[in-house]
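We were asked to recover a plausible sequence for a given structure. The inputs and outputs are reproduced exactly as logged, with field labels preserved.

PROBLEM: sequence recovery
POSITIONS: 279
GIVEN STRUCTURE:
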């Protein structure tokens, strides 16, 4: 009896592994196809200066547009792109697309906007990373481009990445520490890397109104950031009351559905040109 059970649970296991593997392979070929067929889009989420209520920049967030499945969110394909080294060509596409967007906004009412992009560990580690960045930023104002790094990206290969990160800064780009407070938070990143922006993770903002501990953490993070002369960005702001509290705590910038979800380029431009205040 126990033998039969053992056998069944074994085949159950292999079936599940098979399914998982199949799904990964399926997404891998979707990525390869999308790389060939121009199947990616950058969407832009506004970043708002809390005191003026004005949109001062945006974060580029990638979407895969599959002919059958429609829009696929990054959490579903970025990890698989990372596992298959497809993140390198994908990252190069992102860099090109983002910088050509900045170029298009020159000499328009959107010319003052900053644009952030997210960079994965394997991209940063890649030997050609700095030269691709250098090439892409040739004819844009370097300080308009911000590179977002997470703590998990940094812990991957900190020793090797550190000189590269300093080089990015020397090139005049701005640096953001993304998802601060999650994962492997270490104050040594703040000590060793010349960040300009610190982004407080959405998970702290979610309960900031109900949970005094979250409010306290956000206050502490903001105080540290201000002491170090960093600009604080709150992620995932959905409610006016959250925004009011963040303003009281001294936060500078926010992103979140309260203003807008990430938008296709034309919609983002329309939103910006409507000149509304989002505070
Ligand atoms: P992230 O960089 O921390 O981006 C913020 C995520 O929070 C985005 O999800 C955004 O749509 C979502 N968000 C913003 N405001 C709100 C809100 O008010 N409510 C809720 N519920 N969500 C909000 P998204 O676009 O699905 O991206 C998820 C993650 O995927 C990103 O987290 C980033 O780590 C990664 N990612 C996205 N685009 C890229 C990319 O171009 N390259 C790389 N390497 N990673 C990317
Ligand atoms: Mg980000
Ligand atoms: Mg984030
Ligand atoms: Mg995140």
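RECOVERED SEQUENCE:
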């Amino acid at each position: 009896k126990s033998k039969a059970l053992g056998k069944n649970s074994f085949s159950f296991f292999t079936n599940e592994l098979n399914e998982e593997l199949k799904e990964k392979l399926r997404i891998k070929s979707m990525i390869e196809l999308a790389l060939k067929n121009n199947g990616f889009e950058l969407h832009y989420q506004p970043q708002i200066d809390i005191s003026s209520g004005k949109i001062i920049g945006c974060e580029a967030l990638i979407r895969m547009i599959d002919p059958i499945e429609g829009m696929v969110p990054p959490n579903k394909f970025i990890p698989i792109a990372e596992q298959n080294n497809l993140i390198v060509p994908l990252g190069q596409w992102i860099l090109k697309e983002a910088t050509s967007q900045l170029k298009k906004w020159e000499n328009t009412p959107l010319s003052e906007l900053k644009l952030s992009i997210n960079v994965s560990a394997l991209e940063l580690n890649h030997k050609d990373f700095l030269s691709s960045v250098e090439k892409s930023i040739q004819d844009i104002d370097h300080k308009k481009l911000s590179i977002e790094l997470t703590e998990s990206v940094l812990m991957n290969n900190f020793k090797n990445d550190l000189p590269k990160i300093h080089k990015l800064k020397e090139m005049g780009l701005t640096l953001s520490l993304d998802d601060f407070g999650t994962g492997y938070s270490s104050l040594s990143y703040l000590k060793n890397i010349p960040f300009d922006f610190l982004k407080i993770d959405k998970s702290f903002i979610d309960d900031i109104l109900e949970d005094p501990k979250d409010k306290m953490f956000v206050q502490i993070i903001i105080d540290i950031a201000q002491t170090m002369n960093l600009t604080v960005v709150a992620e995932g702001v959905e409610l006016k009351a959250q925004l009011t509290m963040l303003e009281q705590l001294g936060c500078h910038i926010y992103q979140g559905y309260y203003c807008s979800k990430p938008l296709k380029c034309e919609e983002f431009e329309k939103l910006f040109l409507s000149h509304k205040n989002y505070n």
